[in-house]
């Protein structure tokens, strides 16, 4: 048997890749190229040899700063391109290779040019906005002034002091100074201030004016016909023109301060209509010129941004790579005297030849006279865990890694999760109508795989797309389990032939009270459709699904214990095989394996035995006669033997291993006065789960014994609680079925009973929404989480330590925008 197991071919996912610890001695002139080639290969995880140094004390800190500054400039260009509504080209424009120094100069020139263009554009935009606001104020304020001209304003009296809040009117000052020069006026004369303010601030502005002047003012307003662009946010803002009539110098000072506080722009408006028209013509002429200038500036700016956008992706990728290379070089020791860099790290054993070839190429391309030394070393710490996955297996590996990364070379649960996880989900979600809906969704994601993989998705869609193959298998198994349960949106179908039951009479009036009569062989596949709606439907389905859940649970836990055997055999721990695996198998199967046997025998024989009674009195009165609860000959002595085995298995798990470990430790170090060296040989000799595994200076028997006692108690109690935990398969399957039945009967059939098209459409809509959001989304999420718990707790705790760490190689392929 052992020879057969040893000759089995290895599985890629069953054990993590074999790792080796290597040392690199790289000449300084070829260091950059060597690290770049290793980054392209992506199979070496460097160890930080300068962990005691701060980032500012490292050798290549200046180069990292330069790369960070270039990244900032490129992000600035990207933001500007996005604001301008331009698309950065995904296609790389043919361009001769550029080194980092030339790129740094080029980026500085582009940034200076763009900042200057933005500054000029902002000034022009501000002038344009002011002139546009002035024009709007002139147009709207004239109406207020004309209406009040005959009543309160004389022709010879104008505004005594014009209000200029901006410098944009310096060029028009000649006309305004000539036509609107302050005249001598009585301080008690009626005056006015006109301006424009954001519509959202208008109500508060008016209230403040009213309170400040104590009601001694007249406030007129009119909405602006055009929206004004905010130069900061580039949003179009609605504004309102206002004219405030007041009297007195003190009121004028208060109003001006309030206008300044609320960000209102005040503009001078002459009372003479001819002067108003003349200023309006001048402002319109300047607006036309500014529009042309702005459009020309935008065209020039967009042209410059387009030239940058053509190379932006390539430049960002180049700077990102350079920064990653220098960050990695900072993890190496720099020997000034020998002019070389010393690095250490982990790499898979299969990648040694590829790495040596890449390093030789780096030496040749950098014209170095000295080659790069690459040699393996011994390491004390445990190697990282690395599994080679593909698009199908990676989501299942992520499910396992979310619980904990596998210990180095430990049996990987993802191999079995690939099939068992979607199957357990389907046991709880079984309905082939709902399964078809999930299947269609999975097929859409798979069909659009190439397109969606290049797009930036939201968090939910990204999770859904990443697990598209998990969704596919869950859908397929849901269809299979739905056919077993014979449920299509809770409706049974005669897919595999006629029912094995018929009514007692032709009218079938007593079918739900007295029951049906079996008249032919059982239904060939799945649940007979006649059970649906019968008086014994719920007891039958409950019994079937509950017993089925126990069978699945016991088989699943047995698989976990068997994997612990393969782990112990792989690591050469005979103690774990003899004093953990064997008693655990005996204890679990003496109780719950026997219960599974009783379930199968009862199904096969059609016995009416009460299994609750059998299991309870197996402990309370093992020697009593079983009577009508006896399922097979020799059942009572078998129960006594199994009970004795279960009792013996508990001390078998608890006592032998700690005492044997103590004896081995005493024999190994008898007569030695020195302590244990922390070498790899001692680590290899250490037993898993023992106190010596982590290089303790002395063997602590009490700690080992307590540790073993905890494991034994946890397994004994866990065998009961874990088996009961698998009953969630029955509970969720029943809940899903009953909820689906309620929506079908109480919504769809109830609405279909009315001879009204509107009521039928409403019922169909409610049924569709309930199916989509409650049954397909909430119920599927619930079943997913419960299947996840069964894998993490009930299955993986039998063999899986999950205390390793992931292999994270230096790779350009894993760089993202967040690394800028």
TrEMBL record:
Gene Ontology CC: vacuolar proton-transporting V-type ATPase, V0 domain
Coiled coil residues, start to end: 100-127
Listed transmembrane segments: 419-446, 467-485, 548-566, 586-603, 638-655, 757-778
Membrane topology: Multi-pass membrane protein
Localization (cell): Membrane
Keyword set, alphabetical order: Coiled coil, Hydrogen ion transport, Hydrolase, Ion transport, Membrane, Transmembrane, Transmembrane helix, Transport
Family: Belongs to the V-ATPase 116 kDa subunit family.
Name of the featured protein: V-type proton ATPase subunit a
Organism: Cajanus cajan (Pigeon pea)
């Amino acid at each position: 048997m052992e020879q057969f197991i040893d000759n089995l071919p290895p599985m890629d996912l069953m054990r993590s890749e074999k790792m080796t610890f290597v040392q690199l001695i790289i000449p300084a002139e070829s260091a950059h190229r060597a690290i770049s080639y290793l980054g392209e290969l992506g199979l070496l995880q460097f160890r930080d040899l300068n962990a005691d140094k701060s980032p500012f004390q490292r050798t290549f800190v200046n180069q990292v700063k330069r790369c960070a500054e270039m990244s900032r400039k490129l992000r600035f260009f990207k933001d500007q391109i996005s604001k301008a509504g331009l698309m950065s080209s995904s296609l790389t424009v043919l361009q001769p290779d550029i080194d980092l120094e030339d790129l740094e100069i080029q980026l500085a020139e582009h940034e200076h040019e763009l900042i200057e263009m933005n500054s000029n554009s902002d000034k022009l935009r501000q002038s344009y906005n002011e002139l546009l606001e002035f024009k709007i104020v002139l147009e709207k304020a004239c109406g207020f002034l004309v209406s009040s001209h005959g009543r309160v304003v004389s022709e010879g009296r104008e505004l005594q002091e014009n209000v200029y809040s901006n410098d944009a009117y310096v060029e028009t000052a000649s006309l305004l100074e000539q036509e609107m020069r302050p005249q001598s006026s009585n301080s008690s004369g009626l005056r006015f201030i006109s301006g424009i303010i954001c519509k959202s601030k208008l109500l508060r502005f008016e209230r403040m004016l009213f309170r400040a002047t104590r009601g001694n003012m007249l406030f007129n307003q009119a909405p602006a016909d055009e929206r004004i662009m905010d130069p900061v946010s580039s949003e179009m803002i609605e504004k309102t023109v206002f004219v405030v009539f007041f009297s007195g110098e003190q009121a004028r000072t208060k109003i001006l301060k309030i206008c300044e506080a609320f960000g209102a722009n005040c503009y001078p408006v002459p009372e003479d209509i001819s002067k108003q028209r003349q200023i309006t013509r001048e402002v319109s002429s300047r607006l036309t010129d500014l529009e042309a200038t702005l459009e020309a500036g935008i065209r020039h700016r967009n042209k410059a941004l387009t030239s940058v956008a053509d190379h932006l992706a390539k430049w960002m990728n180049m700077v990102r790579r350079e920064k990653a290379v220098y960050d990695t070089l900072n993890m190496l020791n720099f020997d000034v005297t020998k002019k070389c860099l010393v690095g250490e790290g982990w790499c898979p054993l299969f990648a040694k030849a590829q790495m040596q070839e890449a390093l030789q190429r780096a030496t040749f391309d950098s014209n170095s006279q000295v080659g790069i030394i690459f040699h393996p070393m011994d390491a004390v710490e445990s190697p990282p865990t690395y599994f080679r996955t593909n698009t199908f297996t990676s989501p299942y590996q992520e499910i396992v890694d979310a619980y904990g990364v596998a210990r180095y070379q430990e049996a990987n649960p993802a191999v079995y999760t690939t099939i068992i996880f979607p199957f357990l989900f389907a046991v709880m979600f079984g309905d082939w109508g709902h399964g078809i809906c999930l299947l269609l969704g999975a097929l859409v994601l798979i069909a659009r795989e190439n397109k969606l993989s290049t797009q930036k998705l939201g968090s939910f869609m990204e999770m859904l797309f990443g697990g598209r193959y998990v969704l596919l298998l869950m859908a397929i198994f849901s269809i299979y389990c739905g056919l077993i349960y014979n449920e299509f949106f809770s409706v049974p179908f005669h897919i595999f032939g006629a029912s094995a039951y018929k009514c007692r009479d032709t009218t079938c009036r007593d079918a739900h009270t007295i029951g049906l009569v079996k008249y032919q062989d059982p239904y060939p596949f799945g649940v007979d459709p006649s059970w649906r709606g019968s008086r014994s439907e719920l007891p039958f389905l409950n019994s079937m699904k509950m017993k089925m859940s126990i069978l699945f649970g016991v088989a699943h836990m047995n698989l976990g214990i068997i994997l612990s055997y393969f782990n112990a055999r792989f690591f050469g721990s005979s103690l774990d095989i003899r004093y953990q695996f064997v008693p655990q198998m005996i204890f679990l199967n003496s109780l719950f394996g026997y219960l599974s046997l009783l379930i199968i025998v009862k199904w096969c024989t059609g016995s009416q035995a009460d299994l609750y009674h059998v299991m309870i009195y197996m402990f309370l009165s093992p020697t009593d006669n079983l009577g009508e609860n006896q399922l097979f000959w020799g059942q009572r002595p078998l129960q006594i033997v199994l009970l004795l085995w279960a009792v013996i298995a508990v001390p078998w798990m608890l006592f032998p291993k700690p005492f044997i470990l103590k004896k081995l430790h005493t024999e190994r170090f008898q007569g030695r006065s020195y302590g244990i060296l922390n070498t790899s040989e001692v680590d290899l000799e250490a037993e898993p789960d023992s106190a010596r595994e982590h290089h303790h200076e002395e063997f602590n028997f009490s700690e080992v014994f307590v540790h073993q006692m905890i494991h034994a108690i946890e397994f004994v109690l866990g065998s009961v609680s874990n088996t009961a935990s698998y009953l969630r398969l029955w509970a969720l399957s029943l809940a899903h079925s009953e909820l689906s039945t309620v929506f079908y009967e109480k919504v769809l059939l109830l609405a279909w009973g009315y001879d009204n098209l509107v009521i039928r459409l409403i019922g169909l809509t409610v049924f569709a929404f309930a199916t989509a959001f409650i049954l397909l989304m909430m119920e599927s999420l619930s079943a997913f989480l419960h299947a996840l718990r069964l894998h993490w707790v009930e299955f993986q705790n039998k063999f899986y330590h999950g205390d390793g760490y992931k292999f994270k190689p230096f790779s350009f392929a894993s760089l993202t925008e967040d690394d800028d």
